[in-house]
Amino acid sequence: MVTLKFYYDFLSQPCRTLYIFMKKTKIPFEPKPVNLRQGEHLTKEFVSLNPFKKVPFIDDKGTVLIESVSILRYLCRTYNVADHWYPKDIQRQALVDQYLEWQHNNTRAHCTEYFRHKALWAAKNWPGSKY
Prior knowledge:
One of its GO terms (molecular function) is glutathione transferase activity. InterPro entries: Glutathione-S-Trfase_C_sf, Glutathione_S-Trfase, Glutathione_S-Trfase_N, GST_N_Theta, GST_Theta, Thioredoxin-like_sf. This protein is α+β, with helices and mostly antiparallel strands. It folds into two domains: about 1-85, Glutaredoxin, CATH 3.40.30; about 85-130. Helix content is about 50%, strand content about 10%. The chain has five helices and four strands. It has helices spanning about 15-25, 45-50, 70-80, 90-105, 105-125; strands at about 5-10, 30-35, 55-60, 65. It has a four-stranded mixed beta sheet, with helices on one face. A hairpin with a 2-residue loop joins strand 3 and strand 4 (about 65). The chain is globular and about 55 Å long.
C-alpha cells in the first residue's frame, strides 16, 4: 500500500529531480500532479494541503514537507536508499549537504536566468510574435 503522496508539476526542476530520484531508488509513491499553469496550486483544496502554494511537496502518512532538499533528506533517512545517494557517514553527508545548499542559490538560480533569457528571446523573435 502506497502511503507517500508526491505533489508535483514537471515545470519545476526540483519536482523533476525528486520524481526521478524516487523512481531510481524505487521509493513507492502516489503521484499527485498539480497543473501550475492552470493555477491548481491556488485552489482552496490545494492551499488546505499546502499553505505555501508551491510544489514539490509530500505527505507521508501525515508528515508534510514542502522544500525539495528537506524532502530528499527525509526520503533518504526514512526509506532504504543506497548509501551512494546520501551517505550515512556524517562527514560525507556534510559534503552532500553543502552542495545541496549551495546549488539552490547558485546552479539553479543561474540556470533559471539563462533559461528565461533564452525563452524570452525565442518568444520575442518567433515569426508573428507580438512581444
